[in-house]
């Protein structure tokens, strides 16, 4: 009985060792083509295209020649059937625009926490008023970036085709005029082999 139990434990250990997986680091910029789902390569292509297009658009070049306009990023609407973290796309676009040295951003996602901190500094009696941030001194945004991500999926018995379209717009808050708009289209196709692999 002990021998049978020992053999079962050894067999289980061998089976688990044989199923062990190996994890390696890869190049975060490398093309990722595992599935037709939205992935890291798509995010990187969209961000690069949007920033490159905006930075060479003549009116944007003119408005950023002598100053750094202030903008905020609104949530991008995900109109696909996939769960896609669109905030990752706008975070990457925002980082690229800030690092260009041409724009400044206000972060509307933290307004409530900033308000709490300002109230604490002003009303708690615990902050030296000579160093406290003052209410009503924040800079207002001049422009808003917003957009949509949509997709069209077609399939038959052997092929799946996914078309993504990302649209981003730059709105002048004062005038309501769209100053710039950009689009990036991506098509991904997956064909199933004859044997279903």
From TrEMBL:
What is the residue range of the signal peptide feature? Answer: 1-22
- Any idea which UniProt keywords this protein has? Signal
Know the name of this protein?
Penicillin-binding protein activator LpoB
Gene Ontology CC entries for this record: periplasmic side of cell outer membrane
Which Gene Ontology BP annotations are present?
peptidoglycan biosynthetic process
| Top-level division of the source organism's lineage | Bacteria
Alphabetized GO MF terms: enzyme regulator activity
Species name: Alloalcanivorax marinus
Q: Does the keyword Lipid metabolism apply?
A: no
């Amino acid at each position: 009985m002990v021998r049978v139990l020992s053999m079962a434990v050894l067999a289980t250990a061998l089976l688990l060792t044989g199923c062990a997986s190996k994890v390696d680091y890869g190049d975060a910029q490398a093309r990722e083509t595992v599935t037709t789902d939205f992935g890291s390569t798509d995010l990187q292509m969209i961000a690069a295209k949007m920033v490159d297009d905006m930075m060479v658009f003549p009116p944007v070049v003119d408005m950023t020649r002598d100053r750094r306009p202030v903008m905020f990023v609104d949530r991008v609407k995900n109109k696909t059937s996939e769960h896609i973290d669109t905030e990752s796309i706008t975070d990457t676009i925002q980082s690229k625009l800030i690092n260009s040295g041409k724009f400044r951003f206000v972060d509307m996602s933290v307004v409530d926490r900033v308000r709490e901190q300002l109230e604490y500094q002003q009303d708690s009696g615990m902050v030296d008023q000579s160093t406290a941030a003052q209410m009503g001194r924040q800079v207002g945004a001049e422009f808003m970036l917003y957009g949509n991500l949509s997709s069209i999926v077609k399939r038959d018995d052997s092929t799946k085709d996914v078309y993504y379209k990302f649209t981003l717009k730059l709105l002048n808050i004062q005038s309501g005029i769209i100053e710039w708009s950009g689009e990036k289209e991506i098509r991904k196709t997956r064909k199933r082999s004859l044997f279903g692999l």
